[in-house]
Amino acid sequence: QVQLVESGGGLVQPEGSLRLSCAASGFTFSTYYMNWVRQAPGKGLEWVSSINSDGSITTYIDSVKGRFTISRDNAKNTLYLQMNSLKSEDTAVYFCAADYNMNYWGKGTLVTVSS
């Protein structure tokens, strides 16, 4: 069965960095479009970034452009999100989601940006 497991979240100070990982199993990861989505406390889901199957095309929400980088290692079946210059408004649970229509989701990892 499809399994997505996020890791790498934690508490970080403003302007700090974190790298999130999403380990995938149960499907042919290298053929899937992948996404990062976040949910801030008390708010709805917000798409953050996407990457195509071979990593050649990436897209980002405007608020993270220039600060976040999505990438993937198809040999390791792993999706990444490098987050730099973090702001308090980046505080959220971050989910990875597989497929263009986000049919498969992980359980998320919490990122808290606070001094």
Description:
The N and C termini lie far apart (40 Å). The mean pLDDT is 97. A hairpin with a 5-residue loop joins strand 4 and strand 5. The chain is globular. 0% of the residues lie in helices and 50% in strands. It has strands at 3-7, 10-12, 18-25, 34-39, 45-51, 58-60, 68-73, 78-83, 92-98, 104-105, 109-113. By secondary structure, it is mainly beta.
Summarize, please.
0% of the residues lie in helices and 50% in strands. It is mostly beta strands and 115 residues long.
Mean pLDDT: 97
Work out the helix count: 0
The beta-strand count equals 11
Radius of gyration over all CA atoms, rounded: 13 Å
Biggest sheet overview = 7 strands, mixed
Draw up the topology in text:
Layout: E1 3-7, E2 10-12, E3 18-25, E4 34-39, E5 45-51, E6 58-60, E7 68-73, E8 78-83, E9 92-98, E10 104-105, E11 109-113
Parallel strand pairs: 2-11
Antiparallel strand pairs: 1-3, 3-8, 4-5, 4-9, 5-6, 7-8, 9-10, 9-11
